[in-house]
Structures are given as C-alpha cells and as structure tokens.
Amino acid sequence: MGFCKNACDIIGIMKESTKGAINKMSKKIVAIVGSLRKESLNKKLALKAKEIVGEEAEFEILEYSDIPFMNEDIEFPAPKEIERIRKQIKEADGIWIFTPEYNHFFSGVLKNLLDWMSRPVSKTEGNVLEGKPVALSGMSPGMSGTILAQDNLVTLLSFLNMDIMNAPRLIIPRASTLVNEGVLELGNSEKYLIRQKDAFLKYLDK
Ligand SMILES: Cc1cc2nc3c(=O)[nH]c(=O)nc-3n(C[C@H](O)[C@H](O)[C@H](O)COP(=O)(O)O)c2cc1C
After folding, report:
1. pLDDT for 147-178, tens place per residue?
2. Among 101, 143, 184, which is best to mutate for testing ligand 1, by the most ligand atoms less than 8 A from CB?
3. pLDDT of 102-119, one tens digit each?
4. Number of domains into which the chain is organized
5. CATH no. for residue 135?
6. Pocket residues for ligand 1 (CB within 6 Å)?
7. Does residue 21 form part of some domain?
C-alpha cells in the first residue's frame, strides 16, 4: 500500500527516494581505448581506472570496433554505430582516453573514431566533442610511455576545441614488466592513476 510498518522501513524508503538524486549528480565518464587488441595494455589500464573510480562516477568503456572507416560517401545519414557512439559521447560529462603509441603517434583506429566524431551531427547540430573535458593516459612497453603519442593527440584534441586536462597526464613506460599472467599490477604507478582520477573528477566539477 506504499506505507511501511516501522522506522526501519521509513529510513529504507528515504534511502530509496534519495538514490535517484544521488545518481543524477554523479558524473559520467566515457573511456576510449585506442587499441582494439584483446590483451591491450591500455584496455587493462582503462579497466584499472574503472575499478579505481568505483562508485565515484559512472565509467563505461566505449565499444567502437564495429565502425567503418570515415568516408564522406557514407556520412549522411550516419551509420547506426556512429549514431550510438555520438549519443554516448553526448551524454558523457568527460572523456578519458587511454592511448597506445604507434610510431610515436596515436593509433589509426583512434584517429578514425575522432574523425567521425569531429563532424557535425546535422546542418543544425555541431559535433559532439566540442568543449568536452578530456583526460589522457597511456602505457607502452618502450621508454616513451606514450608521451609522444599523447603530445600528438593534444594537438588534434585542441584543434577540435576539446577541454583538455593538461595536467596531470599519465604516462607509463616499460609497461610489459607490469603484467603478470595477463593481470596488470601497477605497483608504484597506481598512485599516479589515483591522482589523475581525483584531478579529473575535480575538473568535471568545475
Ligand atoms: C605499428 C606499431 C607501432 C609501434 N610504435 C611504437 C612506438 O613508437 N613507441 C612505443 O613505445 N611503442 C610502439 N609500439 C609498441 C606498442 O606500444 C605496443 O604494442 C603496445 O602494447 C600497444 O598498446 P596496447 O597494448 O594497448 O595494444 C608499436 C606497435 C605497433 C603495432
């Protein structure tokens, strides 16, 4: 009948009724991993970030392995995969990119995705990246730890007028030494990931 029997139930109902409000206030982060590889180090890092974010925000890893190559012949109407991703990005408060380094650059699949997202949705609606807060992380087995890939990515993201959190960025070199039987063990680097998570959540609140 909607009425509770005792005080515990009342507290329970109050908890239930405030749940929606709390959830509404929580930020939504969409993570983009620039590698499609099953055992991707950067995917493992994104999963670790999801674990560290925990209940502090919604955190979802974007699935985009099914999108076509950008080709203006198929741009309008946009393929359904592109529409789905645009919706996800539009609803996000922030984007967190986990990039590999390919030949001192970021990967082609990431560029393809960003090229799609850089285009206006329609004649009356602009692109979904404009002004969107973005954080950058990456790991690679080499010594550069993706720093060059990230610098190149910053050039693109700033051209797209995204709101880049320039510091802290997370760079993890010699990454293969941190994987034990397929499991990423960040060790001393974990505190830097936590620091970046704290900074990005604060950045999203500004
Ligand atoms: C085409 C290609 C180019 C690469 N170039 C670099 C590079 O410039 N610097 C680097 O540190 N690692 C380079 N690597 C190694 C990648 O960093 C490594 O494969 C890494 O694990 C890829 O990221 P992922 O594990 O998230 O897939 C390259 C790998 C590929 C396939």
Report:
1. 999 999 999 999 999 999 999 999 999 999 99
2. 101
3. 999 999 999 999 999 999
4. 1
5. 3.40.50.360
6. 35, 37, 40-42, 100-104, 140-142, 144
7. no
